[in-house]
Specification:
Number of strands: 0
Largest sheet: none
Helix content: over 70%
Number of helices: 6
Low-confidence stretches: none
Shape: globular
Structural class: mainly alpha
Mean pLDDT: 97
Distance between the termini: 9 Å
């Protein structure tokens, strides 16, 4: 029997609506201000951490192979069928932003709307539903 920490996954899934709304509002009203740029950075960072945290809980709970990187978390959970296959490339692009956002933040172009901002605004709610369906199906 698996021990999947549904409580901690649910806490993270619950944050998705707020993150998606912020990304959507940023994309719709983009003016290129520093404040918007900083908000975009944080919202994208939260999206990354949410997706990878959920993936890590799934990997641990279902005793999937160990992940060697953030991209690997996406690969492993994608192979397990936790989300639609057509999402995998975009989620991989998202997690590849972690290093630029966290370590190379001083060169991030804050006045530009990142293409993933609009994409993730619509994809995150689908990701949430997919994870919930995956958990219901597997447990």
């Amino acid at each position: 029997m698996y021990y999947v920490n549904r409580e901690q996954i649910a806490v993270r899934l619950d944050s998705i609506a707020e993150i998606a709304t912020a990304l959507d509002k940023l994309a719709a009203n983009w003016q290129g201000t520093v404040l918007e740029g900083l908000a975009q950075e944080r919202a994208l960072h939260l999206a990354i951490e949410t997706v990878t945290d959920i993936g890590s809980f799934l990997i641990d709970g279902f005793i999937l192979r160990d992940a060697s990187s953030y991209e690997d978390i996406i690969d492993i959970t994608g192979e397990a069928g936790a989300f639609p296959a057509d999402m995998q490339g975009t989620l991989t692009e998202l997690v590849k932003l972690r290093k630029p956002l966290v370590q190379d933040y001083y060169v991030w172009l804050r006045t530009e709307l990142h293409p993933l901002t609009k994409t993730m605004a619509s994809m995150l709610p689908i990701f949430k539903r997919s994870i919930e369906e995956y958990l219901d199906r597997e447990l």
